[in-house]
Amino acid sequence: MHVVILAASRHPVAEPFAGGLESLTWHLVRGLRERHVAVTVFAGEGSDPLLDARVLRASPLRLSAAAAADVSMVPEPWLREHHAYLQVMLELQRRTDVDVVHNNSLHHLPVAMASSVPAAVLTTLHTPPTPWLEPAIAIARGNGGTAHHVAVSEHTAASWRHVADVDVVRNGVDVTRWTPGPGGPDLVWAGRLVPEKAPHLAVRIARAAGRRLRLAGPVGDVGYVERELLPLLGDGVEYVGHLDTAGLAGLFGSSAVSLVTPAWDEPYGLVAAESLACGTPVVAFRRGGLPEVLDGSTGVLVDPDGPDLVGRAAAAVVAAERLDRRACRQRAVQECSVARMVQEYLARYEGMSAGLVA
């Protein structure tokens, strides 16, 4: 079997990962190759050399002075991304050596052009509906398109079922790298430092609970970090940087409880699965796919609506700390592993290429 994987182009598929999409892509490629599947990857510049990826780049993109000066000219990065995916899809139209194209990007063109490619096309839906991708899926389906779709959680799948038939393949973490730690006295929060992840709420919760907090992750919104987060640092709250897998696993494993505080509906909740793999229970807002990651033996879900959210979450820290760290690890191994995720995708590829998956 030969599988082509189309990654998102805006961030490299390399550690430390920009987010769950990049992590999924990296682990999927490695897992498939370990199972002796031939994989060709198209990914953003700067991706891990071990992936041997072809760079998603519009090459060459030459604009005349008249085209560049036209009033309809869009920002050049958007134009380059559009033509990069256009070039890949046009190439795949001519390829007869590919069994499955797995669109792991957020771009609409692989969906819109799926029926023009000889291979079966699978798209993983990583986010809620977007204004570019939703119409592309609806139009393709209305024209009798044969593309296949899965989502990273039941919650995310449900948000797309008004335009497509969507199954679920949940994301996975490498439980051989995210390994149990001894725990410790402090709380931990990890993720992109952006308003929708709300690390500032994690700070307020930690202070209400009277606990120290360590924050980790890439700065995704400089203005937000400078206005809302930097003034809160100190007095038991420390930002430790953007860590790789080993660093994050050590951070989770040496913490008492992880805080997951989204101000939006998380499509999956990968950080919660990573924490469980390290044996660390989770306090999370009951949003998006997080209730599918956690159960009563591994975390405490807090209703984000209602009064005194911070106080209720601080009280949940006490309850979460009593949970069995071994049960957290066991759930991650059984329900959240990369091995499970790769096997589910491989079974789907085999069914699609044999015409057994509608």
Automatic annotation (TrEMBL):
GO biological process terms held by the UniProt record: carbohydrate derivative biosynthetic process
InterPro entries for this protein: Glyco_trans_4-like_N (IPR028098), Glycosyltransferase_grp1 (IPR050194)
Taxonomic source organism: Phycicoccus endophyticus
SUPFAM superfamilies per the UniProt record, alphabetical: UDP-Glycosyltransferase/glycogen phosphorylase
Keywords: Glycosyltransferase, Transferase
Pfam families: Glyco_trans_1_4 (PF13692), Glyco_transf_4 (PF13439)
Domain Glycosyltransferase subfamily 4-like N-terminal: 19-177
GO MF: glycosyltransferase activity
Name this protein carries in UniProt: D-inositol 3-phosphate glycosyltransferase
